[in-house]
TrEMBL record:
<protein>
    <recommendedName>
        <fullName>Plastocyanin-like domain-containing protein</fullName>
    </recommendedName>
</protein>
<dbReference type="InterPro" id="IPR008972">
    <property type="entry name" value="Cupredoxin"/>
</dbReference>
<keyword id="KW-0732">Signal</keyword>
<feature type="domain" description="Plastocyanin-like">
    <location>
        <begin position="57"/>
        <end position="171"/>
    </location>
</feature>
<feature type="signal peptide">
    <location>
        <begin position="1"/>
        <end position="21"/>
    </location>
</feature>
<dbReference type="InterPro" id="IPR045087">
    <property type="entry name" value="Cu-oxidase_fam"/>
</dbReference>
<dbReference type="InterPro" id="IPR011707">
    <property type="entry name" value="Cu-oxidase-like_N"/>
</dbReference>
<dbReference type="GO" id="GO:0005507">
    <property type="term" value="F:copper ion binding"/>
</dbReference>
<dbReference type="Pfam" id="PF07732">
    <property type="entry name" value="Cu-oxidase_3"/>
</dbReference>
<comment type="similarity">
    <text>Belongs to the multicopper oxidase family.</text>
</comment>
<dbReference type="GO" id="GO:0016491">
    <property type="term" value="F:oxidoreductase activity"/>
</dbReference>
Length: 333
């Protein structure tokens, strides 16, 4: 009997929700935080994610998907033909605790229950558990996709709060061979409430603040996230507009001059290879492009999102910086 009790407690410990983890953002102006990456092995990526909620000092409600180790929103790497298995626990509790689920945005997979179905599947709060088992087709396009909550009538709040993450289907190098071995930088761009401003009635600032990998770029000063890289470094940037509401128009500027970037894939469709000076990303869009970083003669190098006029009743999307690129000898690529 003792060994049965011991096994019971070991199982409870193994599958416990992390109730003390938090979803709050990093401090504004922080260094760029590369995301945590997890990879499939022997045809399977098996992850456990916990849906959690946190209320900040200024009243914002933040949501996140956490691993058992407390890592937020890991980047999930799979190969065509793999199985993606996600055990999702809803650890949110208390008043107004929402149900949750997961949508795999852009995936060419079955809408059946247990795969990419969002109408019926709802993981209830206070410890509800559901397992997704997704068969990634062997013919699936490589590129960037993303996962996020998709409970109807509750999705906006939780996506604004940060409940989203990137997925990479491997194999883009087969289409664009020069990407092999190239350093990769991943950016998940999210939006969230602007403290103190009402969504549609205060025209002093943007409708929504933005963040880069959970580092905020808040109104009114917009301190950019600081990214250190070797001078003239060539990198592949994988970017997701994981915003619930904000439109983005990305441009790389060196001393105020727009720079060309080479677009190698858009929304999981490889092969464009176009030189562009801006990339428009509506909500949910993904882009993969090659960047040549600034050399030491450049005084100010920034990734910005250009202003977008959404009309008299649309959201306000002003010009604002996202990243400040700092060329430094000895920086890791």
């Amino acid at each position: 009997m003792r060994w049965q009790i011991l096994i019971f407690f070991l199982l409870v410990w193994e599958f416990r929700p992390i109730v003390s983890a938090i979803c709050t953002l990093y401090p504004a102006g922080s260094l760029f935080q590369e995301q945590f990456h997890t990879y499939s092995s022997n045809g399977l990526l098996d992850v456990r994610l916990i849906f959690q909620r946190d209320i900040t000092d200024d009243g914002n409600v933040e949501y996140c998907f956490l691993t058992q180790d407390g890592v937020r929103s890991p980047v999930l790497h799979v190969n065509p033909g793999d199985e993606l298995r996600i055990t999702l626990t809803n650890a949110v509790s208390g008043g107004g605790a929402p149900a949750t689920n997961m949508h795999f945005h852009g995936f060419h997979v079955s809408p059946a229950s247990g795969q990419d179905e969002v109408v019926v599947t709802q993981v209830q709060p206070d410890g509800g558990v559901f397992t997704y088992s997704i068969a990634v087709p062997a013919t699936h396009f490589p590129g960037v996709y993303w996962y996020h909550t998709h409970v109807h009538m509750a999705a906006e709040e939780s996506v604004l709060g940060g409940a989203s993450g990137m997925i990479v289907v491997e194999g883009l190098e087969a289409t664009v061979p020069d990407l092999a071995g190239m350093p990769v930088r991943t950016l998940t761009l999210r939006d969230n409430l602007v403290p103190g401003l009402e969504e549609m009635h205060d025209t002093r600032g943007p409708s929504w603040d933005l963040s880069v990998n959970f580092v905020p770029v808040p109104y009114p000063d917009y301190p950019p996230v600081r990214a250190v890289l070797p001078p003239s470094a060539v990198e592949l940037w994988r970017v997701v507009n994981a915003c619930a509401d904000s439109l983005l128009d990305l441009q790389l500027q060196y001393d105020g001059v727009p720079q060309d970037v080479r677009l190698v894939a858009m929304d999981g469709a490889p092969g464009t290879n176009a030189a562009l000076q801006s990339i428009l990303l509506p909500n949910g869009a993904r882009a993969e492009f090659v960047v040549r970083g600034p050399d030491l003669s450049v005084r100010t190098a920034r990734l910005v999102t250009l202003p977008i006029d959404a009309g008299p009743v649309g959201d306000r999307n002003p010009l604002r910086p996202l990243l400040s690129l700092i060329p430094t000898h000895g920086a890791a690529p």
